[in-house]
Amino acid sequence: MARLVAKIAVSAATYWLDKPYDYLIPEELAAAAVPGVRVHVPFSRGNRRTEGVLLAVSEESAVERPLKAILAVLDDAPVLTPDQLKLAYFMRERFFCTVYDAVRAMLPAGLWFDEEGRRRANDKTQEMARLLLSPEDASAAAQARRLRSPAQSAILEQLAAFEAIPTRELLLHAGAGRSPLKALEKAGLVELYQRETFRRVQIHVGQTEPLPLLSEEQRQAFEGIGARAESGESGAALLFGVTGSGKTSVYIHLIDRQLQRGKSVILLVPEIALTPQMIQTFSSHFGNEVAVLHSSLPIGERYDEWKRIRGGKAHVVIGTRSAVFAPCEYLGLLIIDEEQEETYKSENIPRYNARDVAKYRCARSGCLLLLGSATPELTSMYAARTGRYGFFKLENRYNEQALPRVEIVDMKRELRRGNGGSISTLLREEIETNLSRGEQSILFINRRGANRLVSCGECGFTYRCPRCSVSLTYHSVSDRLICHYCGFSRRPDEACPVCGGTLRRIGAGTQMVETELKELFPDTAILRMDTDTVTPAGSHEKLLDRFREENIPIMVGTQMVTKGLNFENVTLVGVISADQSLYAGDYRAGERTFSLITQVVGRSGRGAKPGRAVIQTFTPDNEIIVQAARQDYEAFYDSELELRRLQNTPPFSELLAVTVSGMNEDHVVRACRALRQRLEALKADSGARILGPAPLAVARVNNRYRYRVMIYASRAQGLRALVASVVMEACRDKRFADVSIWADNDPTD
C-alpha cells in the first residue's frame, strides 16, 4: 500500500507559521483519516500533542525530512464539508487569521474538547420501547397476561396503541415498574433502544399560522427579490424600507418560497435581544423548520441545533453573526437584517465580517444575499445605486400610519431655564400624556451606569482607570466607579483626594435617567435594559416579555432598544443625548448617529396609534440630527456621500489596518514606524495611502498601548497579501518580541 500523507492545519501554529503541515497516515487510521476530521498530531521539536484539522490527503510530500505520523483521529465522520474547508482558506486570506482559527469560528463550542480530552457537549439520547410483533398480536398477548401479570398487560396495551414510545412515558401511562418491561424484553415481545433527541430552544407550538398579507408595495418587493433568488445566479440585493414598513413580512414570504423549492435560508439579526421576537414570529409560520444559533444558548442546545441543521431537520436558521456559518446543505437565500450594524463584525480572532462571509457563501452556492435596513450602510446603498446590488424600496409603513412626529429640544435652552437634569420639560410633558392614556414610552441613552465621570469642581480632578486611558463611570446601584473596558472598580472618596474639594457627578447614563424618572414619576413602573440588566442568558427575553405583558409604562435602554422591537402600545420615544456618538472622531460617526436616532424613533407608533418622538441635543442645528428627525435618509445619504468622497473613505476606498499592542508605549510606536516604512517600501505603484502610526481612540486598555497604521486603497484585494507578508515578517522579528501585531479589514474601533 502506498503511503498516505495528510495536509493538516495545526492549532498550535501561530499566524506567521500557519501552513498545511504534512503528516503520515498510519495504516490503521487510513479509513478514518479523511478531509474534514480533527486529529491529534505531534507538533514542534518537543512533539507536543496538538489538535489539528485534516485538510487533504495525497500520496506525495514536498518535505524531505522524515514525516511524523498522526496519533489519533478524533471524529467518527467529517465535521467539515469540502465547501467549509474552502471557506476556511478564504477566511485566512481575507481576515488575516489561521485556518484553524477559521474552523473554530465555524463549529459550535460543544463539538470541541476540554483539557481532559472529553467533548464539551455529548449527544443526548432517550430510551425508547417498541413492539416486536403486530399491534393485533400485542393486544392478544396483553389479554393473555391480564390475570397473571397486569403490569405486563398494561405495557403491551400501551404499545399496541403507540407501537413506539419513550420508556419513561410508557411506564408512567401503564402505571408499571421497570421489571415487567425487562421481562417483556427478555421474552422477545419488546425491544428497548436509544433514540437521539435534541435539546431545543423554546419555539412556537401548535398549528402554524398563515403567511401575513402583503401590501401592494410589499408584494412588488417580494416578487422582484423572489425572481432574483430563483434565478440560480449569485448576487446581492438591498431592501430599503422605512421603520415599520413590514420588511419582516417580505422575509417570511421569501423564506416560504425557498422552502417550497427544497432550499434552506439563513436569517441574521444584529442583537441577541432581537432573536426572541424573531423566533416567535418565524416559528409561528414554519414550526420545527426553525433552528436558532447564537452565543447565549447553552452549549448543549447550540450543539444540537447545529446537528439539526447539518442533518437536514431544520431549514430556516435564525441567529446572530456566527449563524452565517450554519451548515445548510442547499442554501437558497441568506438575509442580513439591520445590515448596517457593527455587531456583524467580530473584534476577536478571527476578525471576520459576517457580510463578507455571506457574500462568499452566496457566490459558492449560487444564491441571493439580501440586505435589509431602514438606514442601510452607505457602502451598501452606493452599491445599490450604482447597479452592483439589486434595489427594492418600501416607502410606507404597513399600517399606513405616518412616521412619528419628531421635535428637537435644545438642551442649552433647558440649562438657561434652570433644568440641569436629563429629562427636558417637553419630554416630561409627553411622558405625562402617555401615562394618562395608558400608552408606553421608550427612552434611549447610549451609556450605561449613572454618571459619565466624577470630577472635582475646584481643581478639576477626575477618576481615571489606572489600566486604561478612560475615565471611570459611576454606577449608583453598587456605589462604585467602574471601567467599562477592563472591569477595574473602586469606591469614590467622600471628597477630592487631591484638594479636598467637593466631588460632582457629571453626565448621565441609564441608571441616572432611571433615577430621575423615579423622582418625576414615583408611582410609575420603570424598566431598564442595558448590559448590566441582561447579563444572564435569556434575561433580555424576560425583560421584553415583562414590558409587553405587564404594559410597563417606561423602558430606558441603550442600543438594545433602538432596533427590531415591535410594541404596538409604544407611542413615544425619547432620545436623551443625541450628540453622544456624533463627535467620536471616526469617519462613521455621522452614519452611526443618524442610524441610531432613526431606528429608535421608528419604535414609536408601530400600531394603530400615532407616534411621537423627542430628540434632546446641545446642537439642534446639526445637519445629521435634523435629517434624522425628518427620517430623511436620502438627504443624509447625499450629504454624507459627498463628505466621504472628499475624505476618500469607503465606498470610495477600502481600508486595511495594522495594529500593534504592547505594555511599553515606546516599543509599540517603534514597531508601528517600522511597519509603515516596510509598507511604504513595498506598496510600489498601488496608489495606496498609508497613514500613521496613530493611537486608537482609547490608546491604552488593560495596561496595553494600542497604535495603528492605516492603508487606504481603491481596491484592497491586491494589498492583502502584501500586508500579510509584512505582518508575518514583523512577528518573526526578535526586535518586536514584546508586542502583538495583527492586521484587520476596515476596523470598527
Number of strands: 30
**Average pLDDT number:** 90
What does the largest sheet look like?
7 strands, parallel
**Which strand order spans the largest sheet, edge to edge or round the barrel?**
11-12-10-13-14-9-15
Low-confidence stretches: none
Strand content: 15-25%
How would the global form be characterised? globular
What is the end-to-end distance? 55 Å
* Residues in helix, %: 25-40%
- The number of helical segments is 21
**Radius of gyration based on Cα positions:** 30 Å
Structural class call reads alpha/beta
Salient structural properties:
single chain, 749 residues, alpha/beta, 7-stranded parallel sheet, 6-stranded parallel sheet, 33% helix
Write up this protein:
Helix content is 33%, strand content 23%. With 749 residues, the chain is an alpha/beta fold. Helix 16 (539-549) links the parallel strand 23 (526-529) and strand 24.
Give a short synopsis of this structure:
The chain is an alpha/beta fold and 749 residues long. The chain contains 21 helices and 30 strands.
Which SSEs are present, and which pair or pack?
Elements (H helix, E strand, L loop, with lengths): L4 E6 L10 E4 L13 E6 L4 E11 L13 E2 L8 H14 L3 H8 L18 E7 L3 H10 L5 H13 L1 E3 H8 L3 H9 L3 E7 L19 H14 L5 E7 L5 H14 L3 E5 L6 H12 L3 E4 L5 H12 L5 E4 L11 E7 L16 H12 L2 E6 L4 H8 L4 E5 L10 E6 H6 L8 H13 L2 E5 L8 E4 L16 E3 L4 E3 L6 E2 L12 E4 L3 H11 L5 E4 L9 H11 L4 E4 L12 E6 L13 H13 L10 E6 L5 H7 L3 H15 L6 E9 L2 H18 L6 E13 L2 E10 L3 H16 L6 E7 L4
Parallel strand pairs: 9-14, 9-15, 10-12, 10-13, 11-12, 13-14, 16-26, 17-24, 17-25, 23-24, 25-26
Antiparallel strand pairs: 1-2, 1-4, 3-4, 3-5, 6-7, 6-8, 18-22, 19-20, 20-21, 27-29, 27-30, 28-29
Helix pairs in contact: 1-2, 1-11, 3-4, 4-5, 7-8, 17-18, 20-21
